[in-house]
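Page 47, continued from p. 46.
Same chain as before, 148 aa.
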Amino acid sequence: MRIRSFQLSDVNQVMELLQVALSEECYEDTKRAFARQLSWDSELIMIAEVDEEIVGVLIGTIDQKDLGCIYRIAIHPDYRRRGAGKSLVTAMEQRFQQRKVHRIMIAGDEHNKGVAMPLYEAMGYGANKFLEAFQKLNIAAVHSLSGS
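Result:
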């Protein structure tokens, strides 16, 4: 398994993965946040691949200049419990450290608290590391950025 930064050529495979790996409601929320983060800083989107097939994606963001936030992780159902999630989170933690961000939180929505909670807990992210006010994250904002 290889962990790497997102590349523009990955967009179709990532969208397909998100659709397969997430619930419909979660997918709708995530695709907006993914598009925003992609336009702002694609280096905070990490990819897990096996034999050049994308099997996992982690969308991170830096909010309020010093808060690193893991917004969403999606692992293909066939590759769950094989270390992809842990590898993606570790890679994002390293990316945050490179950016001098030392405060890391998990976006505390119902999707992260449900499916991904065991992964985050195993990596030391207890309930106090969940950002309850995740709606305030710029990439998760529901309002239009165009001002219309």
